[in-house]
Specification:
Oligomer: homodimer
Structural class of chain A: mainly alpha
Largest interface: A-B, 143 and 143 residues
Distance between the termini of chain A: 29 Å
Order of helices and strands of chain A: HHHHHHHHHHHHHHHHHHEHEHEHEHHEHE
Radius of gyration of chain A: 34 Å
Chain lengths: ~675, ~675
């Protein structure tokens, strides 16, 4: 033990092996593990399969967006029809029928997609594999923007409904939005399974209460021969100011299509499902589409028989269509409040769908080298934490910028989703073209592509001036960003690729250089390490002082160097290390040292240079505050950047407390797993 | 050249010497140097003397606080007398006389202090050297708190006066305060000379305009036989509600003493003056006290003859005493607005005194080891930038917390200054006691100590409940903090002290360990550097994958290792490096590596371990964003902290662009100096 002989404080557990008996529990983890408390313990790779979801958790995890859209889809379509008065309410049937047909088409199409891409059938993969990388990036960019918008709009819609119910909360709109965002983020950082389990309560409550309510309304309507008496009469419909034109119908259709966003979620997230993933994904997709379709149909029918139309949101006595319907069917009693409450809950939680799919999409894109690799690294709970945090950051910024009121973002919605729909369907159609003998399937996906493409065109035309142009600008920007990143990573990869064998001829012995501030144990240890590395050791002392003070200081250092370094080295028959004293008129440090290094390199051309930097190890948070190491950090960075290809930096730590490697392991590999650590296998 | 043979991108200028021809100007500095633009070029040590100030800059740099207090001192005393009505105005003469006597006493005392402590005669030094370390710390803590308060209160008072003149600016109070703070900070970061030069305009404008105005008033008063007719009549004095008691007089005296804060500034900042520093400091002190004394006397006299009393600040028609006086003497014309404008300017700039003295005080305290050493390092402009920034941060936080309205902090004022006064005077008295034969001087400083001590007692008693108790609590807290820091730094110093010679026996050859992710040029370079350091090289590959993917990946890596490393090493007759493959079920990195290092250390007890970490050099800001190195950073930190005393970390840089050491030097040592760089002197 070379070092421990005289560095009294630098201990090492004599029985090094016992240090790793980290199951014994004799050392408590002294620090509060906040991350562990919030997010849960680190999960092992092999726990991954058990963390995956079935249809039961799949519907809440991926269906919140789809089911929640039953609240705003019909409302959006009816809003467009307000100028048409009572007549507008009658044409809702053909519009909703068209939407339901498209929904069914999408369901069949995605059913096939999941089957063909059982590992991951997202629009990005399907478009990339069948239509080329650019189509894939277009789908990815459109979806990414849509996911971010979905989070911001979903949360602010839910909180908006809450604050209109409880006006006292209105001043805290932004805080409430960010609070819900933080909650969803945290739950998703814990894992998709947790998200599915936690959010299943509001989801199934919504389905049960609203489903029951609508069913009760339909039975009442049928029993009364199609003209039921409302318990709370809805406000009378406004008088018509416009006739029903084709353009009005198309716009109503385009608005109603927002009811479909969220249907692609399942196919984008197949990898979240337990094996057999295809089966569970199919079940989840079917459940979501079935519930959504029935809700939409029921709402459209009941709106007609109860004469419930949309109201201007700006009016003070504004009520949503679903609120009017529920009041008309059961009155403003207990059932009404449970139904409306669960609706608000799933609206604000509909952001969850984005949290399940966005990180998975980013992971695929990152694996292809279009995003930083950190997006593809599973976090401590086996979800892609970086993607989750980026989504939360982007949506949080949107909410903050708009003060929690994102109404103006709603027109931007649906463009991304329908772009992805169209690309995915076209990709699948192209897929079937290349695999002949699947005519029916080609027909399904082809019709799907045509239908969603037509819907996209209508949506773009109808909403372009309202704000959809923003998406038309943003999507290419995202694509350019992704491609730039790709070029960057490809360049790095190309530069790093190493085909040949290692070149070992002409390895010259290194020179060790050490910046010397004063003679202390740090310098002592650094000199010893320098002597281990090289017979040629040069210490550089930069003096910032001038005048008599400096001379006294340098004189003392020289005496110490002579007595404590040169003489012992001579006694040990080693070449004594050299010391250079250099005045630094500008108190510069890195530049001066680089200059001396360059001079030394000139004297010994071709020899590698190791710069030895001793560092006091920071053990507590106050060490970081009190031991200023910014100068050492800057020096290290300047040396690495500008020291040339023959320079390496050696950090020699000087610890004041005992090392505890077992703490690092215990933190990274939790103890409560009865899992033997695979022992190292030498080659 | 070992490396450059096949690392195509890692260049090195062949003519290394030409790299340092940095006076030639053939390489423009491509990056915008924002710091240089804001603060100015880096100054050489030997420019320090030329950067120092004379009395001309000394009065604005250090006198703004003192002169500005002429505005609030008399006002504060008169405010206390409001309940006494017209009678209160008459007793202002004895109060002001007492204050002027104390001021003269202080001036003589500090005159002597500067003479005896020509290098630095601050209260901290004087108290420490004559009364012991604790007295010094008490003075330092009191002064530090006072300086921070002075900045916050001065700026908010100035801006408060501005916003009451221009009410439209009122919503931006905090922004304006922080703006002025930023301006003063920036000017002081440029240097004390600049601060003196820039702030001399408002200072001398104030002295000239207000001096002239008061002189004009006095001559009018004398010509009219003591009863001049005011041009704008001041509001009539309120009727008395209380009699004049001794307690009222004492409180008025205590409040009036705020006029004296700022007088200690010169003695605390002697080191800022050019040689002969004592002469310039004396001149500055004399000028400040003389101007201040005359202003105070003139204000007290004119307030009586014009019947100007203080008004309640809460009243809507509130006018300050000086505003009433100026209006009474010259009317609300051009001279009035110039005088009041310059007064507002020096009030908001009175914070400057703190910026000159606080960093110097912190430097002295840091040199004694009671503050982090960064406070004692001169910045690029030879001022103590860390102290300046801390003062700005502390005052900025106070302003932010109080929203830019710091009226409530005014009672806290003056306690710190008078504590420092008393300690400094007592210290000087003790100094003369130890140097007999200076009876007159002992008398001056002794009387000064008694006078300021009495004033301190009155201030504490009069203002304790108003808020001075905060200072009484804060000062001990600061002292405890300073002492804790001292103990910490002493402990570090004790642990680092190295008395004996270096121990060179038993230096065993090191082992090189390198974490291996994949086989690329980074790994290639790392292996070569490892082979330079040690004959025993072990590469550790941690695989996070499991199943067939992992086997394929590991198999390929093993083939590459065999062909590209082992075979060439055998051909070069070297011991082939070993590779260990280890599965990491929890995707952990640092902990795993520490475990393997510990196993290797067990196999080779006592041998030092060098862990080689290759690193892509980050050259542009986007590299920091796109090349995530948080894992490498965490690994490095864990290795240094928990790797034990025999471990060092070697960073092998891999640069994609040419190094430019001359840029570092040009940045740290500006080119526009015709100063030959002292060449290195070998021992």
């Amino acid at each position: 033990m070379v070092a421990s002989a005289f560095i009294a404080k630098e201990h090492r557990d004599a029985a090094a092996s016992s240090v790793f008996a980290y199951g014994s529990g004799d050392r408590r983890n002294r620090r509060l593990d906040l991350t562990g408390f919030l997010i849960g313990r680190r999960l092992a790779n092999r726990e991954g399969q058990g963390r995956k979801i079935t249809a039961t958790e799949g519907v809440p995890a991926m269906g919140l967006d789809g089911l929640g859209s039953s609240a705003y889809g019909p409302e959006a379509a009816l809003s467009i029809m307000i100028p048409a008065g009572a007549l507008g309410l009658q044409v809702i049937t053909p519009i909703m029928a068209a939407i339901l047909v498209l929904l069914a088409l999408l369901c069949f199409s995605y059913w096939q997609t999941i089957e063909s891409y059982p590992s991951n059938g997202g629009s990005y993969t399907v478009a990339k594999e069948n239509l080329g990388a650019n189509a894939g990036l277009l789908a990815a960019a459109a979806l990414m923007i849509d996911y971010v918008l979905n989070v911001a709009v979903g949360i602010s819609a839910g909180i908006g409904a809450l604050t209109s119910a409880v006006p006292q909360l209105h001043p805290y709109t932004l805080e409430l939005c960010l609070g819900v965002l933080a909650l969803i983020t945290l739950v998703n950082l814990r894992g998709t399974l947790e998200a599915g389990l936690i959010f299943s309560i509001p989801t199934y409550l919504f389905v049960a209460s609203f489903g029951g309510l609508l069913l009760f309304g339909i039975s009442k309507a049928i029993l009364s021969g199609g003209s039921p008496a409302p318990i709370v009469a809805p406000p009378s419909l406004p008088t018509a100011t416009e006739g029903v034109t084709l353009w009005l119908l198309l716009r109503a259709f385009a608005s109603g299509c927002t009811a479909m966003t969220g249907v692609e979620a399942v196919s984008n997230g197949v990898s979240a499902f337990r094996e057999p993933a295809v089966k569970y994904a199919h079940r989840t997709l079917a459940a979501i589409v079935l519930i959504l379709g029935m809700l939409l149909a029921a709402i459209a029918y009941l709106a007609q028989v109860y004469h419930v139309g949309a109201m201007e949101q700006t009016k003070p006595d504004y009520q949503s269509v679903l609120s009017q319907l529920a009041a008309a069917i059961v009155g403003r009693g207990f059932v009404y409040f449970v139904a409306i409450g669960s609706l608000l809950a799933i609206l604000s939680l509909s952001a969850n769908t984005s949290f399940v799919d966005f990180p998975r999409l980013c992971r695929l894109v990152a694996t292809d080298g279009y995003l930083p690799r950190a997006f593809a690294i599973p976090g401590r709970r086996l979800v892609y934490s970086v993607g989750i945090l980026w989504l939360a950051g982007a949506a949080g910024s949107l909410l903050a910028v708009f003060g929690g009121i994102t109404d103006r973002l709603i027109p931007l919605f649906a463009v991304g989703a329908f772009t992805a729909f169209t690309l995915s369907q076209t990709g699948m159609a192209s897929h079937w073209l290349q695999h002949p003998g699947n005519r029916l399937r080609l027909l399904v996906n082809g019709t799907g592509a045509a239908g969603t493409g037509a819907a996209l065109a209508v949506i773009l035309a109808a909403k372009f001036m309202e704000g959809a142009w923003v998406v038309v600008i943003a999507v290419p920007c995202v694509i350019i960003l992704l491609k730039t990143l790709h070029r960057y990573y490809e360049m790095i990869d190309r530069q790093l690729r190493d085909e040949g064998a290692i070149a070992l001829r002409g390895l010259e012995p290194p020179i060790a250089i050490l910046p010397l501030q004063r003679w202390d144990r740090l310098a002592d240890k650094a000199v010893r390490y320098a002597l281990m590395l090289s017979p040629d050791v040069v210490a550089v002392h930069l003096t910032k002082l001038e005048g008599p003070d400096a001379e006294e200081h340098v004189g003392r250092l020289r005496r110490q160097w002579r007595n404590d370094v040169e003489l012992p080295a001579q006694a040990a028959a080693m070449r004594p290390p050299e010391m250079i004293v250099s005045a630094s008129p500008y108190r510069s440090f890195a530049g001066r040292l680089l200059k001396h290094i360059s001079e030394i390199e000139e004297r010994h051309p071709g020899r590698p240079v190791f710069v030895i930097i001793p560092e006091i190890v920071k053990e507590h948070w106050w060490d970081y505050l009190l031991l200023d190491s910014s100068r050492v950090r800057k020096l290290r960075r300047a040396l690495l950047r500008h020291g040339g290809p023959n320079l390496a930096v050696v950090t020699v730590p000087w610890a004041r407390e005992e090392p505890h490697p077992e703490e690092v392991i215990a933190k990274e590999e939790p103890q409560n797993q009865a899992m033997a650590i695979t022992s190292a296998q030498p080659v």
